Amino acid sequence: MQVRDAAEWAASLPLAQALREGAWLYPVVETVHIVGFAVLVGAVAMFDLRVLGFGRQLPVQALARHLLPWSAGSMLLVVPTGLLLFIADPQSLLANRVFLLKLGLILAAGLNALAFHAGPYRSAAAWSQQAPALARLHALLSLGLWIAVIACGRMLAYF
Ligand code: HEM
Which residues form the DUF6644 domain (predicted)? Predict the structure, then answer.
């Protein structure tokens, strides 16, 4: 099945029609999407700021154990609601460069998080109060990428 056929099929689903035509469903789903990414990006940003050197009295690994499950768990809200918003108008979203850029940025942010965990974070127990330069670089990149994802999501309403 071609992507275009899949988009046409998704748009024809009764749920997609309800999202387009109902007064409440789309805003409710969008609100849950926003709550989900607020938790996701909020938790990630607090952790990144710690790695960058803010709140040095907080132990990095304990903070990670508290925050990172929230950011991973919030994906259970963000991804399904994102897909629901997507099926309301898949053809035009697939042709929208801002939407494609947003997906690419989410992928880049995920890869950056994986590289951080497989790389500098493995030796976090041995970090002094200052995280190593590579860890700080990942944290800075993470903040920039997630801010760009939010900007692209918001811009979808205008492009
Ligand atoms: C993972 C982190 C994500 C973040 C930070 C994010 C961010 C946003 C933001 C800021 C908005 C605009 C909300 C508003 O202005 O009311 C939005 C809307 C939207 N998002 Fe996401 N999003 C994420 C994931 C996804 C995913 C995975 C998908 C689809 C597969 C998706 C699809 C959409 C769609 C279709 C809209 C509605 C656009 C419109 O107004 O027409 N999002 N998102």
Answer: 29-157
